[in-house]
Write a structure and sequence with these properties.
The chain has two domains: about 90 residues, PH-domain like (Roll); about 40 residues. The chain has four helices and seven strands. The protein has a four-stranded antiparallel sheet with strand order 1-2-3-4, with helices on one face. A three-stranded antiparallel sheet has the order 5-6-7, with helices on one face. α1 packs antiparallel against α2. The chain is elongated and about 65 Å long.
């Protein structure tokens, strides 16, 4: 007899909010000023605009609190608010623990496809792993180099 997997719903933030003190912002200003000086010296006006816009975007991103997103796992796939990710887009999934936060990472079938990373509360973890495990194989996943850089920079 095949066990019927129940639908699982939960709510979590879109990303882990990190604290940024005055030293972090001062470092950002120093790095931005350094690259801006280099761009002016090399007369790379497009590069200068890119640096300034990147710094502004980074500040807006770090000040803005993360949104709460409603997730649902059902027979068709993972739904993030109103966006459906079908199971057949992914070859496997894995679970990551970053500090006290847990996330499920859906690994795409396509070589250059984007993985989908969703955070969940620890109490929902078993139901989420059971629901995903019934439809996708589980693989060990590790933080990639970009995730390590983002964590190091506390972005």
């Amino acid at each position: 007899m095949v066990k019927k997997i129940e639908d699982v719903s939960w709510e979590a933030t879109e990303y882990i909010a990190r604290e940024h003190n005055a030293w972090w912002y001062l470092g950002l200003i120093i790095v931005t000023a350094g690259f801006s000086t280099l761009a002016v010296f090399l007369k790379g006006w497009t590069f200068l605009i890119l640096i300034i816009l990147s710094a502004i975007t980074l500040i807006v991103y770090t000040v803005r609190p993360p949104r709460k997103i409603k997730y649902r796992l059902d027979s068709t796939g993972l739904t993030e608010d109103n966006k459906l990710h079908k199971y057949d887009e992914f070859r496997a999934f894995g679970i990551l623990k970053e500090g006290s936060n847990f996330s499920a990472v859906l690994i795409p079938k396509k070589r250059f496809g984007l993985s989908v990373k969703v955070y969940f509360p620890e109490g929902s973890g078993e139901a989420i792993v059971d629901a995903l495990g019934a439809r996708l194989p589980m693989e060990e996943v590790k933080l990639d180099i970009l995730d390590k850089i983002v964590n190091f920079l506390r972005i």
